[in-house]
Design goal:
This protein is α/β, with parallel strands linked by helices. 38% of the residues lie in helices and 22% in strands. It contains 14 helices and 28 strands. α3 packs antiparallel against α6 and α4 packs parallel to α5. Bound molecules: NADP nicotinamide-adenine-dinucleotide phosphate. The site of NADP nicotinamide-adenine-dinucleotide phosphate (NAP) has 27 residues, from α7 and α8.
Length: 498
């Protein structure tokens, strides 16, 4: 049943092409050009979106600047109320949005629905958290610093930054968009969204839910087009006061080009799973399969390399192989576990890593199999550091196993990576786990579970090439604000009663 672009969503579609959102209205670009979105499963064009022009980007930036001033004056509780409304509308319309996720990024049907529901929950939580943390400021007194009397009171509170530019990646185009939109709006900012091309139509539907909730005109806008064409113009635009980006290496080049604005960068990862010989091997195998192969490995926090003690490696590899054999491989509509990867070029890249490992002598636990963008799950054993797959992020259902003879070897491999997103350790010895966690140069370490981004209010950050700043609902709200102080200077020192 085709639901996307129909019913309440009819106005976002102009013939065959989805409109972009500017000044509270759905519009077609003056460019007269569109960008095709290819369905990863059928490899045929599924949807089209507007190729917005630089003039259209200039216009949304001007509108955002004006709308933000009025929004910052809107009481916090009213901003929260609108966000709660948008969250409810989003959840109400989960079916058509999930349908887009299935068609655009081949997300398994159930996971697509979960992404939308989780996004609604994230927006509501953000509204609640914002009311709490933005409702509080600080009072400092001067006499704690040497040489001062108690004659200055400093009142500090948080103010918005202005216009936030949000650029999410294809793998969670709704969730990773609202994780930026919610904090930006509750904190009193305006928001310009540039969705990933694969996932743009799901994102446009999500934006329409905010439109239906009744946010002021111009406060939220969504411009579409290829990142390679309008990306630089957006990220280097003088109207942007903050960039929140999630994606791959593109984030590194954006960081070098962006002006003097706060950056929130969530980039790639090569999350290591270190397995000690006292670990619960069934727990390990379950987490390697879930962590490494969910959504065909296309998750920033997927397990991307297993570093396992030689003594238990055979047993774990056997258990993982048994579980991999049970995974359903096929189209996302059938709720398959392994679905086609997002583009043909991604599939080619994954294949390149696999073939390099093959040439250099890795053991293939399954036969390598690919049809179109669909790649069957593959565990590569006896991977060595001279293979590309030991270091690079495949973003696909292929997972290298490196056998280690000491914990130090595992930590060394993890820390030699240019990435530092998450990692995990499996052991029954909590003392060892803490020592290893402290030694791992990653933003988060999970003990006895695969890496994961959520729950969404937990701090989430990458070290090294994995990012700048920290996300998670509270941290994102704080990041999208600036501290403003007012100092009251008393004519004479005061004192504390009692
Ligand atoms: P990507 O190629 O870096 O694209 C991310 C976003 O950047 C897309 O919206 C893309 O738009 C846009 N873009 C492309 N070129 C641009 C430019 N010059 N200026 C501004 N924006 C530009 O990443 P992806 O393939 O979508 O996502 C996979 C990557 O994201 C993986 O490396 C993964 O690890 C990472 N990721 C990280 C996290 C995290 O939280 N750390 C979470 C999820 C994913 P177009 O689609 O139009 O090109």
């Amino acid at each position: 049943m085709a639901l996307a672009g129909t019913g309440v969503f009819a106005e976002i579609l102009d013939g065959e092409v989805y409109r972009y959102y500017s000044d509270g209205e759905w519009r077609s670009s003056a460019s007269g050009k569109s960008v095709a979105i290819v369905n990863p499963t059928t490899r045929k064009t599924q949807y089209r979106v507007q190729a917005c022009t630089q003039e259209e980007v200039n216009k949304v930036m001007d509108e955002a600047k004006v709308a933000q001033k009025a929004w910052a004056r809107t009481p916090l509780w009213k901003r929260a109320e609108l966000l709660h409304k948008a969250a409810a509308i989003l959840k109400e319309h989960k079916a058509p949005i999930a349908e887009c996720l299935v068609k655009e990024i081949a997300k398994p049907a159930k996971d697509a629905v979960s992404e939308v529901v989780r996004s609604g929950d994230l927006v509501s939580y953000t509204a609640e958290e914002g009311v709490r943390i933005l409702g509080e400021g600080k009072l400092l007194v001067s006499d704690s610093f040497p040489g001062n009397e108690r004659n200055k009171y400093c009142l500090s509170s948080k103010i918005p930054l202005g216009v936030v530019l949000a650029i999410p990646p294809f793998n969670y185009p709704v969730n990773l968009a609202v994780s930026k939109i919610g904090p930006a709006l509750i904190a009193g900012n305006a928001l310009v969204l540039k969705p990933p091309t694969q996932g743009a139509v799901a994102a446009l539907h999500m934006v329409h839910c905010f439109h239906l909730a009744g946010f002021p005109k111009g406060l939220i806008s969504c411009v579409t087009g290829k990142g390679s064409e309008i990306g630089d113009f957006l990220t280097m635009h003088p109207g942007v006061n903050c960039i929140s980006f999630t994606g791959g290496d593109t984030g590194i080049s954006i960081s070098k080009k962006a002006g003097m604005v706060p950056l929130q960068m969530e980039l790639g990862g090569k999350d290591a799973c270190i397995v000690l010989d006292d670990a619960d091997l069934d727990l390990v195998a379950g987490n390697i399969v879930k962590g490494g192969f969910s959504y065909s490995g296309q998750r920033c926090t997927a397990v991307k390399v297993v570093l396992i003690m030689e003594s238990i490696a055979d047993a774990v590899v056997q258990k993982v192989n048994a579980k991999l054999a049970k995974l359903k491989v096929g189209p996302p509509e059938d709720d398959s576990d392994i679905t086609p990867v997002v583009t043909e070029s991604s599939a080619n890249f994954i294949e390149g890593l696999v073939m390099d490992a093959k040439e250099k002598g890795a053991t293939f636990c399954q036969e390598y199999r690919r049809e179109g963008n669909l790649i069957w799950p593959l565990l590569l054993d006896h991977v060595r550091p001279d293979m590309r797959i030991a270091w690079e992020e495949p973003f696909g259902p292929v997972l290298p196993v490196i056998r280690i003879n000491s914990v130090e070897e595992g930590i060394h491999h993890c820390n030699a990576s240019n990435f530092g997103l998450q990692g995990c350790i499996f052991t029954r010895d909590i003392n060892k786990a803490i020592l290893i966690s402290d030694a791992m140069e990653t933003g988060t370490v999970q003990i006895n579970s695969a890496p994961a981004r959520g729950p969404d209010h937990f701090p989430f950050q990458g070290l090294k090439d994995s990012g700048i700043g920290s996300q998670g609902i509270t941290n994102s709200i704080n990041m999208m604000t600036k501290v403003k102080s007012t100092v009251i200077n008393l004519p004479s020192p005061s004192y504390t009663m009692g």
